Amino acid sequence: MKIGVFDTGTGGELVAKRLKKLLPQHSYITAIDREHAPYGNRSSEEIITLTDTAIQPLLSCSIIILACNTATTIAIQPLRQRYSDVRFIGFEPMIKPAATLTKSRHITLLATNATKHSQRLRALISEYATGVRIDTPDTRAWAQMIDQGLADDIVPDEVSASVADGSDVIVLGCTHYLAIKRRLQRLFPQCRILEPTAIIAKRISDFAS
């Protein structure tokens, strides 16, 4: 089965690499829109238009993975309506699992501004995380720094403050942040760090079976 993977940079490449390892029987095509990255500080209208344009080379695929939380939260529903014969699977912040796993009722969400202010995130929080404190550190520069090879220069001071204040789950709400997942695990060993690649792989397997 042919699977398309879309993102705005390094995150999509990391996702495609991991999916190939988890599901090597499928073929993968990537569409990476570095020209207009990052999407996280753009308007909803821009994000929908840019995502639609970027996925055009992937429309022959059986499944298109939006390996971009921002594109998923803003654009996946319009795309599903426009291309009803294509199956879209999106990455979105793992609010439900985080709310289930946290013992302190306090989690840290690392996400772009567009994701933070999206209706989809508000709906996830309303449905699954009422009563859970959710800190959203300023990570606006992170995706661009990771794409520029400057991941080691990221200083997660606000994450440190959130964890020191009791957060015990960190949600990676942007696939770029997979590039620093191991570093975050070393810095915050007391926290669970969540990202949905394995769940996406299971959804692909379920669809293919």
Describe the protein in words.
The mean pLDDT is 95. The protein is α/β, with parallel strands linked by helices. The protein has two domains: 2-91 and 197-208, Rossmann fold, CATH 3.40.50; 95-194, Rossmann fold, CATH 3.40.50. Strands 2-1-3-4 form a four-stranded parallel β-sheet, sandwiched between helices. A four-stranded parallel β-sheet has the order 6-5-7-8, sandwiched between helices. The protein has helices at residues 10-22, 44-54, 69-82, 95-101, 113-116, 119-128, 142-147, 157-164, 181-187, 197-208, and strands at residues 2-7, 27-32, 63-66, 87-90, 106-110, 133-135, 169-172, 192-194.
CATH topology of the largest domain: Rossmann fold
Shape: globular
Percentage of β-strand residues: 15-25%
Bin the helical content: 40-55%
**What is the terminal separation in angstroms?**
11 Å
User: Which residue ranges are poorly predicted, with pLDDT under 50 across at least 5 consecutive positions?
Assistant: none
What's the average pLDDT? 95
SSE class = alpha/beta
Write the layout of secondary structure elements.
Elements: E1 2-7, H1 10-22, E2 27-32, H2 44-54, E3 63-66, H3 69-82, E4 87-90, H4 95-101, E5 106-110, H5 113-116, H6 119-128, E6 133-135, H7 142-147, H8 157-164, E7 169-172, H9 181-187, E8 192-194, H10 197-208
Parallel strand pairs: 1-2, 1-3, 3-4, 5-6, 5-7, 7-8
Helix pairs in contact: 2-3, 4-6
